[in-house]
Amino acid sequence: MTDKDIKFETSRYLYDLANLAKEHGFKPEENWELSMQSMVGKTRIQRDFYPNNVAKISPDIMLQVMHSIKTKLNLPLTQEEEAANKQTIKLDELQYLVAYNPKRPRN
Question: Can you tell me the distance from the alpha carbon of 36 to that of 22, in angstroms, rounded to the nearest whole number?
Answer without folding.
Answer: 23
